[in-house]
Specification:
1138 residues, mainly beta, Phage tail protein beta-alpha-beta fold, Immunoglobulin-like, Maltoporin, Chain A, 22-stranded antiparallel β-barrel, five-stranded mixed sheet, 7 helices, 55 strands, 7% helix
Length: 1138
C-alpha cells in the first residue's frame, strides 16, 4: 500500500483548534462506547488457565473474570472469599475450576447468562422443617430492578443475592423469615409459610444522617459531619424546562440564595451562599468558571454582557448531586472560598448490564402579563392633562401661583384626533410565545473492571422575546477502569456547542434607544407601525420596535472539559494516592450587525461588531488519603495534597461601520467607515498545599481540622502566600448511654466550626504598568529623546489578602423513627482587609488606588426540615421538605478618606441599605394639609402635588435627621416541596419565595409625571392615574408636576414611593408522573424495563403585592431597566429505560 504524506499536499487545510478537539473527542468517545457496550457471545465451555499461589478466593474470581465474559455476584457475609488458596490449571473448563475451588466449602453457584451467583449451601436442617421454594424479583419504588440485593434467612447463614435482572431463587425452611437488605434502602422482612413468588419493592432509606456526603477532597456520612453542608439530589428535581444547573437550585438548599435575574434562554440565576458573592464551582474535583463566557459589543451600545448562567456546557441531566459548603468546610479550598463552595458530582457507570435510557420533553413557553401601555385614546388624554398641568406650573397660574388661567394653552391633541385615535400594541411586536425541545440519551453499565456512563443531549429553546433563542449539543462520558488490583483509571470528557440568538433585551441594561422592550414601552400607542409611505414610523430619537428584529446578533460557544485521574491503593482500604488533571477550555464568537435601514442610536448607518474570546482553566492535584478504623474506639480519615491552578484568557474584537448590507460580516474589509480593533490577554497562577483530618472517638466525638497554604502571583513578594486554617467539632449526643432511653430521638448531633478563607479578587494589577506613548520630548538644551512608553501606574506592594473568618454552630436531628429529620445553623462571617479602590486620594497618579480597607459582618441562620408525613406501604406516601434562611450584612468599619453623608454613618449600618424620606401623601390643592415642617424646604417643595415629607423627629423642619434607612435584602428565603406517591402515580409540588424584600418599582418607573408632560411625551401605563393633578385627580397619592423641578432636599435623598414591598411566593414546579414497569408493560416489557410519562408546569402561580413587572427578576443595575418577562412553561415528556 502506498502512503501519501499530507505534508506533500499543495493546498493546506486549516481546521480550527476547537473543531479538531471536538472531532478527536467524538471519535475517542465512539470507540470507547463500542468497546464498553459490546456484548460478545458467551460459552459455558470457557477455558481457564491459572497459576496462582497463596492468594485469596476473591483474587481467583477476579482472574477468571479477566479471562472470560462472566461476572461473579456474591455477598461476603455469605461466601468466604478471603480464604487463602493455591490453584494451577491449564485450559480447564470454567465449571471444573469452580468445582475445584469450592470443593468441601458448602458453596454452590448458578450461571445465568454472563452472571455467576455464588450461594452458601446449608448443611444442617433447621428444626427438621421442610424446605419450600421462594422466587421473585426485587425493584425500587420507581420500578427499576435492583441487582445485588442480599436475600438472607434470618438467623442463618444461608442466602443469595438478586441477579442482574433483579430476580432471585432460594430454598427456605418453612416458617422461617427472609430478610432483604441493600445499601441505601430500608430492610424488608417476610415470613415464609409456603412455596411462593415474593416480589419485593425496596424503599429508599429515609435516614438522611447516614447518607454519603461529598466534602473537600473526599466523602463522609452525614452523621459524621462536623460542618454545615447542604445536599441537593437532582434526581428529584424537574429538569423539563431547565437549561442550566443554577436554575435547578432555586429554593432547594437552606443558606443558598438563588435569584432568577433573567428568564431568557440560558438565563442567569444569581447564586449567593449566606449573602456572600459568587461561590466557587467545582465539578468532579476541577475548579470551573462561575460566569458565562461572553463577547463584548464594542461601541455598538448593545447590552455589553448577555445575562446568562455559567457552566452552560454542563447538561443538568448529567448531575448526580450538588453539595453546598457554607461554613469552615470551605476553608480547604482557600482562595475565593470565602463566598462558599458548590461541589457538583456527575453521574458515573455502575456494575450492571448495559442500560439505555431516553428522556425527552416538549415545552410551550408563555409570558407572564407585562406592563400594559395606555391605548391611543388614553395616551392622548393623559398627554393633554399633564401638558396643561405643566403650563400652569411653569407660568405660575393657579393652583401653583396667584395668576388666573389665561386660556392661552393649546391642547397637544384635539378632540377630533382623540376620537379618531387608533391603538398599536408595540409590545406585541416584540413579545411572543416560545418553546423548548429537550432530549437526553444515556448508556450506562459495567463490570468490576470497567464502568461507563455515556450521555448525549440536545436542547433548543425559542425565547418569548423576538430574536432570543439557544441551541445546545452536549456529549459526555465517564469511564473508570480497574486496570490492576491496585490501580484505577478514570476519564471524564465533556464536549459541547452552544449557539445563542441575542435579543436586545435581557442583558445587563439597555436604553430606550437600543432595547426592544423599552422602545416598545416608550412609543406612543396611537402611532402606526408604518406610515402612509410604507416606511417604519419613527418617534423622537427611538428606533421602531418592530424594526429592531432586523438586528442580527449571534453568539456561538464551544468547549471541552477533560478530567483524568489515577487512584492507587498503596494499602488496600487504608492508604491511597490520587493524581488528577483537569482542563476546561471554552471559546466564544459573536457577530453583531445593524443594517443601514434601521434607525438606531440617532442615525441610519450600518454597523457591525466581530469578537472572539477564549479561556482555559487547568487543575493539577495530588492527594494522599488515609482511612482506618481502630476497633470501636477510633476512626481516622486524613488527606494531604498539593495543587497547581492556572487560568488564561485572550480575545480580539473589531467594530466597523458603513458597509453594504449584502456583504456585512462576510467581507469586513469592504467597510467604508472606521475600524476599531481591541484585544486583551490575561493569565494568573495559584499554587496550594492542603491537609484535612477527622478523628471519630467512640462514635460519639468527632474532631476535624483543615489547613491550606495558597499562593498567588497577584501580590508582591512577602505577601504571595497565606494560610487558611479551620477546626470543627461534633458531639453525637444520641450515641451517649444516657440518651438511649429516649426512644423518640433517633439521632441528635451538636456541632461547631471556626475557619478562615482568603480572596485575591482584585481586577487590576498591583504592579506598575506602562502605556504606549510614542512621543518625542525636547529638553531645554534642545536635545530630543523618543519615549515609546510611559509609566501609567505605580506599584502597590502593601496590598494583601482579603480575609473572611467564619463561625458556625449547628444541630442535626432525626426523630420519631426517622419520620422527621433536618438541621439548624447559626453563623457569623467577619470580612476584613477588604480589597477595593480608593478614588479619593488627591495625590494619586490614577483615578483610583487599590487598597485594603474596612470590616463588615455577615450573620444569620438557616434551617432544613424533612418529614415523612403519611405512608401506607406500597399504596401511598407523602413527604415534605422545608428550607428557611436569613442573613444580613452590616458595616463595622468603612473606607477611610471617603466622604459619607452624615445620615449614612450609623452604627451597624446595613451594607445593602438605601435611604429615603418617608412621605404622608401629597400637598392638596389649597395647601391646607401642608405641615409646618414642609415650610423649611424650597418653594417648589411647597407646591400642590408635592410629597409631604414626614418630620420623623418632630422638630418642625426637614433635615437629614429625618432620612430613613431600609435594607434591600430579603428577611427570609423559603423553599417548600411536597411529594405525593399513589401506587404508580407521583405528584411533586415545589415553591419558593422571599419575604421582607424591597425593590425599585418598575411599573412606577414607566408612569412618572416627568415622562408624560413633554410636547412629545413617552407612553405610560395605568399607574399614571395615581399621579396627583389639579384637574382630574386631586385625590392622587403620587407626586405631581411640582416634583419634576429640581429641589435640593437635604442629603439629596429620594422618596419611599419609588420602592415597594417585593415579597413573593412562586410555585416553581407542579409535576405529575405515571410509572409503568414489570407486567404492566405487557409485551413491551421484553424490551423496556420501565416507562415514565409526565406533565410539568413551571412558574404557574406567583403570589405578591408587588405591582412591577416581576418581584424577583432584576435585569438592570437598579432594577429600573426593561426586564425580560417572566414565563410560564408547560411541558410534556417521557423517560424510557431499556
Amino acid at each position: 500500500m502506498k502512503l501519501i504524506s499530507i505534508r506533500k499536499m499543495k493546498k493546506r487545510i486549516n481546521v480550527p483548534a476547537n473543531v479538531k478537539m471536538g472531532r478527536i473527542c467524538a471519535i475517542w468517545l465512539f470507540c470507547i462506547a463500542l468497546q464498553a457496550i459490546s456484548i460478545p457471545i458467551l460459552a459455558q465451555s470457557a477455558q481457564i488457565t491459572l497459576r496462582l499461589k497463596n492468594v485469596t478466593v476473591e483474587e481467583v474470581l477476579t482472574s477468571i473474570e479477566n479471562q472470560t465474559e462472566y461476572r461473579f455476584l456474591y455477598n461476603k457475609d455469605i461466601v468466604d472469599v478471603s480464604r487463602i488458596v493455591s490453584i494451577t490449571v491449564k485450559n480447564e473448563r470454567m465449571t471444573l475450576v469452580l468445582d475445584k475451588l469450592f470443593k468441601g466449602e458448602g458453596v454452590s453457584y448458578t450461571i445465568e447468562k454472563r452472571q455467576i451467583v455464588l450461594n452458601k449451601v446449608s448443611s444442617q436442617p433447621q428444626d427438621n422443617k421442610q424446605p419450600v421454594k421462594v422466587t421473585g424479583k426485587v425493584v425500587d419504588e420507581s420500578g427499576e430492578v435492583l441487582p445485588g440485593v442480599t436475600v438472607m434467612i434470618e438467623g442463618a447463614t444461608q442466602g443469595t443475592i438478586t441477579g442482574i435482572d433483579g430476580n432471585y431463587q432460594l430454598q427456605v425452611p418453612e416458617g422461617s423469615t427472609l430478610k432483604f437488605t441493600s445499601i441505601g434502602y430500608t430492610t424488608y422482612t417476610q415470613k415464609i409459610t409456603r412455596p411462593m413468588t415474593l416480589n419485593v419493592t425496596m424503599k429508599e432509606d429515609s435516614k438522611q444522617l447516614d447518607e454519603v456526603v461529598v466534602v473537600g477532597y473526599g466523602t463522609t456520612t452525614r452523621k459524621n459531619l462536623t460542618t454545615s453542608i447542604a445536599t441537593v439530589k437532582t434526581e428529584k428535581i424537574s429538569r423539563a424546562a431547565t437549561s442550566n444547573m443554577s436554575q435547578m437550585l432555586l429554593g432547594r438548599a437552606a443558606g443558598l440564595e438563588a435569584t432568577l435575574t433573567s428568564p431568557q434562554p440560558g438565563g442567569a440565576v444569581d447564586l449567593s451562599i449566606r449573602g456572600a458573592g459568587t461561590p466557587i464551582f467545582i465539578v468532579d474535583g476541577v475548579m470551573m468558571p462561575s460566569t458565562s463566557l461572553e463577547v463584548g459589543n464594542g461601541n455598538q451600545v448593545m447590552p455589553n454582557s448577555i445575562n446568562r448562567s455559567g457552566l452552560a456546557g454542563l447538561n443538568p441531566a448529567d448531575i448526580e448531586s450538588i453539595e453546598v459548603l457554607k461554613d469552615a468546610s470551605a476553608s480547604i479550598y482557600g482562595i475565593g472560598a470565602a463566598n462558599g463552595v458548590v461541589l457538583i458530582t456527575t453521574k458515573k457507570g455502575t456494575e450492571t448490564r448495559p442500560q439505555i435510557t431516553y428522556e425527552g420533553n416538549y415545552s410551550i413557553v408563555k409570558n407572564y402579563p407585562y406592563l400594559e401601555p395606555l391605548s391611543g385614546e388614553e395616551y392622548m388624554n393623559v398627554a393633554n392633562i399633564f401638558n396643561k398641568e405643566n403650563y400652569l406650573f411653569t407660568n405660575g397660574m393657579y393652583p401653583y401661583g396667584d395668576k388666573p388661567f389665561d386660556n392661552k394653552w393649546v391642547p397637544q391633541f384635539s378632540p377630533q384626533q382623540i376620537a379618531a385615535a387608533q391603538t398599536t400594541d408595540w409590545l406585541d411586536c416584540v413579545l411572543k410565545d416560545g418553546n423548548i425541545n429537550n432530549h437526553n440519551i444515556t448508556i450506562t453499565g459495567g463490570s468490576k473492571l470497567l464502568k461507563y456512563y455515556l450521555s448525549g443531549n440536545y436542547y433548543k429553546q425559542e425565547g418569548t422575546v423576538e430574536n432570543s433563542a439557544m441551541e445546545r449539543y452536549a456529549l459526555r462520558t465517564n469511564i473508570s477502569s480497574q486496570l490492576l488490583p491496585f490501580l484505577k483509571l478514570t476519564a471524564i470528557v465533556n464536549v459541547n456547542e452552544n449557539e445563542y440568538t441575542n435579543s436586545t433585551s435581557g442583558g445587563g441594561g439597555g436604553g430606550n434607544g437600543y432595547d426592544a422592550i423599552q422602545s416598545a414601552l416608550t412609543y406612543p400607542s396611537y402611532l402606526p407601525i408604518r406610515g402612509e409611505d410604507g416606511k417604519p414610523t419613527l418617534y423622537s430619537n427611538y428606533p421602531n420596535p418592530a424594526e429592531m428584529i432586523k438586528v442580527s446578533d449571534r453568539t456561538k460557544t464551544s468547549g471541552y472539559y477533560l478530567n483524568f485521574a489515577a487512584d492507587v491503593d498503596i494499602i488496600k482500604d487504608m492508604l491511597s494516592f490520587r493524581l488528577m488533571y483537569g482542563i476546561n477550555k471554552e471559546n466564544a464568537n459573536r457577530n453583531l450587525y445593524i443594517p443601514s435601514d434601521i434607525y438606531f442610536m440617532d442615525m441610519y448607518k450600518s454597523r457591525g461588531h466581530l469578537g472572539y474570546v477564549e479561556r482555559r482553566n487547568q487543575t493539577m492535584e495530588g492527594t494522599l488519603t488515609f482511612k482506618k478504623q481502630f476497633g470501636d474506639l477510633l476512626r481516622v480519615d486524613a488527606v494531604v495534597g498539593m495543587g497547581r491552578y492556572t487560568n488564561d484568557s485572550n480575545g480580539l474584537e473589531l467594530d466597523y461601520e458603513q458597509i453594504n448590507d449584502h456583504i456585512a460580516a462576510d467581507k469586513v474589509e469592504a467597510a467604508e467607515g472606521a475600524f476599531y480593533p481591541t484585544s486583551f490577554r490575561a493569565a494568573d497562577e495559584r499554587r496550594s498545599q492542603f491537609a484535612r483530618a477527622s478523628v471519630d472517638v467512640l462514635d460519639r466525638y468527632v474532631v476535624a481540622a483543615t489547613i491550606r497554604r495558597d499562593g498567588t502571583d497577584k501580590f508582591f513578594p512577602g505577601k504571595k502566600y497565606a494560610y487558611f486554617p479551620s477546626v470543627s467539632l461534633a458531639w453525637k449526643l444520641s450515641n451517649e448511654p444516657f440518651m438511649k432511653h429516649i426512644s423518640w430521638i433517633d439521632q441528635l448531633k451538636i456541632r461547631g466550626s471556626y475557619g478562615q478563607t482568603g480572596n485575591d479578587n482584585l481586577g487590576s494589577s498591583l504592579y506598575g504598568t506602562f502605556s504606549l506613548a510614542a512621543q518625542y520630548i525636547k529638553f531645554s538644551n534642545n536635545s530630543v529623546t523618543y519615549v515609546p512608553y510611559l509609566l501609567s501606574g505605580p506599584d502597590y506592594p502593601n496590598v494583601t489578602w482579603e480575609k473572611t473568618t467564619m463561625k458556625n454552630i449547628g444541630i442535626d436531628f432525626s426523630v420519631l423513627k426517622d419520620r422527621i429529620w433536618g438541621s439548624f445553623d447559626m453563623f457569623r462571617n467577619d470580612v476584613t482587609n477588604l480589597l477595593g479602590y480608593d478614588s479619593s486620594s488627591p495625590l494619586s497618579m490614577t483615578s483610583s488606588v487599590p487598597m485594603n480597607y474596612g470590616h463588615y459582618v455577615r450573620y444569620g441562620w438557616d434551617a432544613t426540615i424533612n418529614s415523612l408525613n403519611f405512608e401506607i406501604p406500597r399504596v401511598f406516601k407523602w413527604t415534605s421538605q422545608l428550607t428557611l434562611s436569613h442573613h444580613n450584612a452590616v458595616w463595622k468599619e468603612r473606607m477611610p478618606n471617603y466622604y459619607y453623608e452624615e445620615y449614612r454613618i450609623r452604627k451597624n449600618e446595613p451594607v445593602n441599605a438605601y435611604y429615603y424620606y418617608e412621605t404622608e401623601g401629597v400637598i392638596n390643592i389649597d395647601k391646607s394639609n401642608m405641615p409646618e415642617s414642609q415650610k423649611s424646604l424650597p418653594a417648589d417643595a411647597q407646591q400642590p402635588g408635592y410629597p409631604i415629607i414626614k418630620d420623623a423627629n418632630g422638630d418642625n423642619k426637614i433635615t437629614i435627621d429625618d432620612v430613613k434607612m431600609r435594607n434591600t435584602l430579603p428577611k427570609i428565603h423559603i423553599g417548600f416541596g411536597n411529594t405525593f406517591v399513589y401506587k404508580d402515580f407521583d405528584l411533586d409540588v415545589f415553591m419558593y419565595g422571599q419575604f421582607g424584600r424591597t425593590r425599585y418599582n418598575y411599573a412606577y418607573r414607566w408612569a412618572l409625571v416627568g415622562d408624560v408632560y413633554y410636547t412629545s411625551p413617552k407612553n405610560s401605563n395605568k399607574y399614571v392615574y395615581t399621579i396627583w393633578n389639579s384637574q382630574t385627580n386631586q385625590n392622587g397619592n403620587r407626586r405631581g408636576i411640582a416634583s419634576t423641578k429640581a429641589v435640593a432636599l437635604p442629603g439629596n435623598v429620594g422618596f419611599e414611593e419609588d420602592y415597594q414591598n417585593a415579597s413573593f411566593v412562586r410555585v416553581r414546579n407542579i409535576t405529575l408522573g405515571y410509572n409503568l414497569s414489570g407486567k404492566k408493560l405487557g409485551r413491551v416489557g421484553d424490551y423496556v424495563s420501565s416507562i415514565r410519562v409526565f406533565v410539568d408546569c413551571q412558574n404557574p402561580f406567583t403570589f405578591t403585592k408587588f405591582v412591577g413587572v416581576d418581584p424577583e427578576i432584576k435585569t438592570g443595575g437598579d432594577g429600573s431597566k426593561a426586564e425580560y418577562p417572566m414565563t410560564r412553561t408547560y411541558s410534556f415528556g417521557a423517560k424510557i429505560c431499556f
